[in-house]
């Protein structure tokens, strides 16, 4: 029995199809079929029922599957241990971010720096909302996410705060609110509100604040790009709630008015799963990002 045969067996079991398993393994389908038949001959029992449209495990195959997975996991663990002793980091890492953070963090440069230090690690990048990334991290589909959060910390998630800023009301310079010294949620609920889309950290913070105050805002515009949100606000199409440094950065077109009752804060964070130990590659990525982002960004989204 060879380790690759167990690898093929697990792939076919999970894909319920020899062709898809071969594509996943980057080998020819006849080779996968031949290796599974050889494994079945060694066991003396069929592992798959091939009579239907999809391939299904036999009773014996279902009983063998946990042991095959455990064997593959043990071998991978041994390889990781050897790599750590040798000072090598290999494997894959998956990182998530949102398009609304693109203007705040130079992620390509950060990932290039990581690649130069760990060229044997394959990197994948996914864009999603804050809610989507949290679920992906919790499910183990992302090793690390860069996201915006309010005060609430999601369960089972470890965080490293990069920045925390007060949220203020952003208005055009000729807006009537520009002459005010402070505003409340009730004030901005009476005006068209320009927001990031549902599922983003700042939108969730706003939703929770309005719900706690039992106020229903008038959402006039939703944007996934924070730069579009800024331009819509500067044109006088409504008011927005943004991190104070972001409004200060765009002071030539926006004015910041403090938000009172309640005062809100937004955070830019790194997030990773806290329940299970990270792989060496994931630990290296988290460490690299924490070091690289110690310098406070200009704004938070």
Question: Can you walk me through this structure?
Answer:
Helix 2 (18-25) packs across helix 3 (29-43). The chain has helices spanning 3-15, 18-25, 29-43, 59-85, 107-117, 130-138, 185-189, 201-213, 226-234, 244-249, 280-292; strands spanning 48-49, 56-57, 91-97, 121-127, 144-149, 157-172, 192-196, 218-223, 239-243, 254-258, 265-273. It has 301 residues and is α/β, with parallel strands linked by helices. It has 11 helices and 11 strands. Strands 3, 4, 5, 6, 7, 8, 9, 10 and 11 form a 9-stranded mixed sheet that branches. A two-stranded antiparallel sheet has the order 1-2. The protein folds into 2 domains: 3-85, Arc Repressor Mutant, subunit A (Orthogonal Bundle), CATH 1.10.10; 89-301, D-Maltodextrin-Binding Protein, domain 2 (3-Layer(aba) Sandwich). It starts with a helix and ends in a 9-residue tail after the last helix.
């Amino acid at each position: 029995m060879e380790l690759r045969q167990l690898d093929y067996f697990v792939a076919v079991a999970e894909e319920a199809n020899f062709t898809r398993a071969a594509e996943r393994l980057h080998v020819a389908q006849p080779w996968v079929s031949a290796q599974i038949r050889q494994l079945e001959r060694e066991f003396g029992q069929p592992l798959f029922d091939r009579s239907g449209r999809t391939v299904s495990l036999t009773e014996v195959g279902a009983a063998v599957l946990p042991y095959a997975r455990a064997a593959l996991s043990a071998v991978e663990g041994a390889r990781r241990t050897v790599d750590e002793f040798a000072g090598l980091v290999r494997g894959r890492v998956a990182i998530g971010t949102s398009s609304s953070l693109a203007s705040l963090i130079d992620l390509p440069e950060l990932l290039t720096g990581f690649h130069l230090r760990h060229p044997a690690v394959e990197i994948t990048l996914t864009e999603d909302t804050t809610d989507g990334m949290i679920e992906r991290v919790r499910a183990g589909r992302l090793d690390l996410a860069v996201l915006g959060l309010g005060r609430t910390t999601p369960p089972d998630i470890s965080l490293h705060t990069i920045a925390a800023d007060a949220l203020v009301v952003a208005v055009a310079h000729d807006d009537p609110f520009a002459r005010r010294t402070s505003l409340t949620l009730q004030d901005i609920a009476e005006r068209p509100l320009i927001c990031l889309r549902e599922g983003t950290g700042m939108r969730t913070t706003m939703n929770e604040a309005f719900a706690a105050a039992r106020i229903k805002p008038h959402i006039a515009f939703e944007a996934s790009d924070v730069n579009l949100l800024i331009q819509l606000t500067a044109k006088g199409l409504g008011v927005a709630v943004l991190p104070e440094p972001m409004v200060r950065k765009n002071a030539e077109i926006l004015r910041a008015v403090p938000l009172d009752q309640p005062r809100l804060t937004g955070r830019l964070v790194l997030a990773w799963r806290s329940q299970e130990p990270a792989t060496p590659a994931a630990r290296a990525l988290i460490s690299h990002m924490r070091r690289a982002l110690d310098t406070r960004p200009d704004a938070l989204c």
